[in-house]
Amino acid sequence: MRRMYHPWHKWECYKAGFYRTTPPKGMSPDDARQMYCEFLEDTPRFESALQRVTSEWRHSCEHFLSNQNINRIAWLGQSSMCIATGIPACFRGGFKLLSEVQRDTANATADKWLWKWAKEQDRPQLCFEFSFPRALRPGTTQERVAEYVRRWRTMGYPEGIPDTVPERLAALGLAPSWQSVALALLKNDLHLTALGFSAPTSKWYSAIKHLEIQRREAA
């Protein structure tokens, strides 16, 4: 199964507040984490929310559940919490408040719905393909910018990348923008490592660094 992509503005999870960094009004961060714990403890309630996520958040599920390079079980848990209570994913630490048995039960419940979703998509084997590696081939800055745009065009942005995206999505590397390119260049990040590229390595640098360490240890 190939990855399915949708641009961020189609993600139902984003519209529901999944990426917010503050709890709902009148609730403290500790309250949010405690509620997360209590939500996962209640398996029938959790399953009801999982059913809503997999049926109502079509674009989000296609984009995230077709990606085996993320923790899809955790994503389903966080999404279910968000759709049911409005609590964003950043308070997922409530999962750690569960006992080991409760964690296993919650994970098994989410796993069941992951496979249920995959079966409904007629993709039961979940053989996913990742197409945006974190370490891309070396090249000039211009070549890397062109590669960045080209890859994202195949990942839900066929008309080209937008000028800006929400700051939270940019920070997590979940959506592309020309603003992200500009900020990398303003920081003199000519290798565009902030955009997922790797900096070229030099065998001479490694050799000189090795000699420096040897001299330091001998002193």
- Helix percentage range: 40-55%
**Tell me, what's the shape?**
globular
Structural classification: mainly alpha
Number of helices: 10
Radius of gyration using CA atoms only: 21 Å
- Ends: how far apart? 58 Å
Q: Mean pLDDT, as a whole number?
A: 86
- Uncertain segments of ≥5 residues (pLDDT<50)? 127-138
Order of helices and strands: HHHHHHHHHH
Q: What number of structural domains do the residues give?
A: 2
Strand content: under 5%
Number of strands: 0
Largest sheet: none
Report a brief summary of the structure:
With 219 residues, the protein is mainly alpha-helical. The protein has helices at 12-15, 29-41, 43-56, 58-65, 72-85, 100-120, 141-153, 167-171, 178-186, 203-218.
Describe this structure in words.
- The chain is mostly helical and 219 residues long.
- It has 2 domains: 8-120, no CATH class; 141-218, no CATH class.
- 53% of the residues lie in helices and 0% in strands.
- The chain has helices at residues 12-15, 29-41, 43-56, 58-65, 72-85, 100-120, 141-153, 167-171, 178-186, 203-218.
- The longest helix is centred in the middle third of the chain and has 21 residues, at 100-120.
- The chain is globular, with a radius of gyration of 21 Å.
- It starts with 11 loop residues before the first helix and ends with a helix.
Task: Describe the structure using short key phrases.
219 residues; mainly alpha
Describe the secondary-structure layout.
Layout: H1 12-15, H2 29-41, H3 43-56, H4 58-65, H5 72-85, H6 100-120, H7 141-153, H8 167-171, H9 178-186, H10 203-218
Helix pairs in contact: 3-5, 3-6, 5-6
